[in-house]
Amino acid sequence: MQSKALQLYTIKELCEKDFIGTLKNVAQWGYEGAQFAGFYDTPAGQLKNTLSELGLKPAGSHTGLDQLKEDALKRQIEYSHEIGNELIILAYLTEENRRNLDDYKRVADTLNKAGDLLKSEGLKLGYHNHDFEFEKQEALTGYEILLSETDPSLLSFELDVYWAAYKGYDVVQFMETLHDRLVTLHVKDMAVKGSERKSTIFGTGELDLASIVAKGKEMDVSWFVVEQEHFETDLETAAKENVRVLQELLKQKV
Length: 254
What we know:
Layout: E1 3-7, H1 12-17, H2 19-29, E2 33-36, H3 44-54, E3 57-63, H4 70-83, E4 87-90, H5 101-120, E5 124-128, E6 136-137, E7 140-141, H6 142-149, E8 156-160, H7 161-166, H8 171-178, E9 182-187, E10 189-193, E11 196-200, H9 209-218, E12 223-226, H10 235-251
Parallel strand pairs: 1-2, 1-12, 2-3, 3-4, 4-5, 5-8, 8-9, 9-12
Antiparallel strand pairs: 6-7, 10-11
């Protein structure tokens, strides 16, 4: 069963104004899950009750590298258990953590340690890419280093299809190389205007979302997570249209 979620960073301005009210809208728009990019100081018990009332499930939570260590990680584990979140995802590597091969190896070590603790707690660790992981670090890309230097039982991957396509990869082929380490997909479309590329409403860009979603279904990806970063309309209109198009794509037979 594949489910549709919204990465709440997409509508962060709305979340900042009224986090709980925005979650109610997310459910009404047709999403089955919410992927968190911060909790806006909301007590775990309150968020758990809100999600239960709305029929929304956690589709993972994004976090930073410094939050995957020691007490910060323990607090995230506790919060995740209380709200029923099973997946903690490293959202972004700051520049000082990705300058060279050794940096990526240190990150991989941190991910292995965090993943081991999460696994012992019945949770999963994921990694979300941008474009910089596909730059060469000597013979390998940063992404290849993370794949090879981490334990497959301790780290899964959330592939951002936009950034993979942005760097010239065939997204469907790339998904296949991840095999069962592919846990969720960040689904985005790409508008190309001259040399400029931006994320756009599903179906108005140039990515083959039908093939990407079909491959995700075939690979039994758990969450198809909507994300958009550039807008030519208001946030609500974009979020509604994206989930409508995604629902149509998920209905298509593989």
